[in-house]
Amino acid sequence: MLFVEEEKVKIVHRSLPRKMIIKRVLLILFGAILMAVGLEFFLVPNKVIDGGIVGVSIILSHLTNLKLGAYIFVLNLPFFYIGYKQIGKTFALSTLFGVSILSIATYVFHPLPVLTTDPLLATVFGGIVLGIGVGIVIRYGGSLDGTEILAILFNKKTPFSVGEIIMFFNLFILGSAGFVFGWDRAMYSLMTYFIAFKTIDIVIQGLDESKSAWIISEQYERIGETILARLGRGVTYLKGEGAYTGDDKKVIFCVITRLEEAKLKEIVDEIDSTAFFAVANIAEVRGGRFKKKDIH
């Protein structure tokens, strides 16, 4: 009989370098202040709300005449603990810091004059500024709203995805704005939510969004060499096998920017118009040889 002694692997959680911590703190600070600017200089004075806990806080602040910042902080308190248990200590502390700055900033900015009383301008620019602020905080490991954490918790007990749960919460909150501020303001609020949502995506993913491309062709060598020569992008040849025919296939894999997608399609069509070609979005690219080579 063989006795195998299992070696326990000790997982070491390394602390972040001081430079990285300072960068994270400053950017979360900046993002939280930007969100406060979007709220107090654009949305709140024009009775336009955001989704999530912030939207609930705006409604409650309007109904009770209590400070918006107090509601934002108190309503998010339970989610710090949930975030600590579900995601981790760093996330919880980053979120606590971001929400604290947001609450203080809304209190400081509230007495200052608004930038516009036009609800359409407030909706557009308020949504953009708010989205940039939230996107920066999320990108650097924090959150300014407990709705996402609540959705993660519900996701484990329901058949709905996190995105679907967040959408349900926000539709309910934005719909409630119709009874409090009027249905025209509810529609402006829905526009704000959409603008902020798209802005957050741009901030998190970056303007120079990357894409992965998969190409299957008998002319794989020629296509690969042309991609390298005309786009300056490296390619990887993967081994594949057709499930129906059992034939060996060569699969070309490469990573490009969205601006290069049309050129890549043109290259593939020129060499082999019958080639299998698939493109997908990539949230982040690191390491390897993604840096673009000189085009010959």
- Low-pLDDT stretches are 1-13
Order of helices and strands: HHHHHHHHEHEEHE
Our count of helices gives 10
Count of individual beta strands: 4
- Main sheet specs: 4 strands, antiparallel
Work out the strand percent: 5-15%
Q: What is the helix content?
A: 55-70%
Strand order of the largest sheet: 2-3-1-4
Radius of gyration: 25 Å
Distance between the termini: 64 Å
Explained architecture:
This protein starts with 17 loop residues before the first helix and ends in a 14-residue tail after the last strand. The protein is built from ten helices and four strands, in the order ααααααααβαββαβ. The protein has helices at 18-43, 52-64, 68-86, 89-109, 119-139, 147-155, 162-181, 183-205, 220-230, 261-271, and strands at residues 210-216, 236-241, 248-257, 276-282. With 296 residues, it is an alpha+beta fold. Strand 2 (236-241) and strand 3 form a beta hairpin. Strands 2-3-1-4 form a four-stranded antiparallel β-sheet, covered by helices on one side.
Structural descriptors:
296 residues, alpha+beta, 4-stranded antiparallel beta sheet, 10 helices, 4 strands, disordered N terminus
